[in-house]
Amino acid sequence: MNSIPRKIMSAAIGGIGLAALLTFAGQETTLLIPNADAQGKKWKYFGSSTCGGGSCHAASKPEANRPANEYTTWSKKDNHAKAFNRLFEEASTEMCEELEIEDGSKDKRCTVCHSTDVPKDLQGDKYNNEDGVSCDGCHGPAEGWFKPHTKPHKYEDMLKLGMWDTRNIWRRTDVCVKCHLQIEPELVDAGHPDLSFEIFAHSRREPPHWYERQTWDGVRAWSVGQAVSLREALRKISKRIKGKKEFDTTVLAIYQAQSYTLVFKHGVAVFGGDAEKKAVKSLNAMFAAALDAEKIADGAAMAKACDAAADLMDKLGQKLAKSTDFDAAKVKAIYAALAADKALLDPDGIDEFVAEQAAGALYALYNSSKQGKGPRNNGDVETPGAIGKILVRPTVYKPEDLFDDEGTFKAGEWVKRYKAAGALVK
Ligand code: HEC
Ligand code: HEC
Ligand code: HEC
Description:
Layout: H1 7-13, H2 18-21, H3 54-57, H4 70-77, H5 90-99, H6 108-114, H7 135-139, H8 146-149, H9 155-159, H10 169-180, H11 185-189, H12 199-205, H13 217-242, H14 247-271, H15 274-293, H16 299-321, H17 328-340, H18 352-371, H19 385-388, H20 394-397, H21 411-422
């Protein structure tokens, strides 16, 4: 419980102990639930019970173009509805003890992610912290659009009334990563699962209470998700360097970013321009040098490179979210490049986080290759066992045979399976 679970980490900074890790301030809160929209207007958050009405979002039959049982799916199958209750479990009590938090359910260091945590003046009548991640935790505060959206309406008009544009996969990933990538080392050190995000696999697991509307859902979600997740990780590195954080804090952000650059470079090779390709290549070299030397040679240069690459990734994500430039040849090319990547096939070069991203990539691209332009996420593509066997996330898939008794990732075993999954799309 008291070492950072990055495999290469212990080799790199083995000498620096728990005390050093506990010296910096709490959870970053920059990207959590926004209090105001782009125009600076504040809207109140309504609780999930506002949305649970029978024929609205808890209907027994789907409508032509939407499941119509969104509330039922969320409340019965989606872990977000349980996120607040999680804070009363034994695992939370233990974590909180270690962090000297008296009550996790009342402490921002937990509630920023495990509930829809907004200030009192933004809480509507039915707002309820115990909802966990409620409907408006992902769709935006409902005050402005609640009444209009119950009558015939245009989606675009709702966006002007404070609804977040989750149909746009670039915006959607923004919503997810604010809780799914920002975990602080001190929490991980106290036993919290380290976070890693891949939007395609995450969305399938949620499970989705929606139909996808855009074509090439798998490759679009994967590539946009990678660009946005990488952007976040890069900004985190830069922020930590500029905030003069210790190397062992910054290094965790570097590992996180690297788990994207090592995998998404194959997407960038197909979808990126020269600037993006160059940026990812030089980031990979810079990260490797810093991890090797156990220090960052030129902090200002790395921060600058990360900021510039983050902006490029943001633009790439925006572009791909609206792109019509997806086709089977591109999907297969990326799949083949990932499957043949020597770094991903080297048990000594890979940790579980890189493995998780590589697995998510094959999963998303496999789905795209079978779906093509075709139907959405209605359970239409059956995922072969070989893909299932490479999915890593311990808290979700419980792939016990991929971790030894000490919880160390068995990279050699994973690589064998990755080879088998890599052969699925030709
Ligand atoms: C940055 C957002 C964030 C913060 C802050 C956060 N969590 Fe979590 N927590 C998550 C996410 C995301 C998951 C799901 C991760 C997964 O399944 O791998 C999770 C999972 C958990 C789990 C389930 C672990 C398991 O093994 O299934 C517990 C328990 C938990 N958190 C407790 C806490 C406590 C207690 C705090 C405060 C000390 C806290 N969390 C703060 C995002 C957060
Ligand atoms: C973890 C984030 C998250 C939470 C929580 C969440 N949603 Fe969603 N929801 C999404 C995403 C992502 C989509 C897909 C994009 C879209 O259609 O906006 C979506 C889509 C929808 C749709 C459109 C369905 C379609 O196919 O047209 C409805 C309606 C909806 N959600 C209602 C709800 C309700 C009601 C709740 C609460 C009970 C809820 N959502 C909670 C993320 C979330
Ligand atoms: C306000 C914070 C928040 C937002 C926004 C959010 N999540 Fe989560 N998510 C959590 C927390 C906390 C958990 C852990 C809940 C638990 O297991 O009790 C979680 C759990 C999950 C899980 C189950 C654990 C796993 O890894 O399988 C999935 C899947 C997931 N989230 C997907 C998404 C997706 C996709 C989005 C964006 C559309 C999203 N989340 C947005 C906080 C958030």
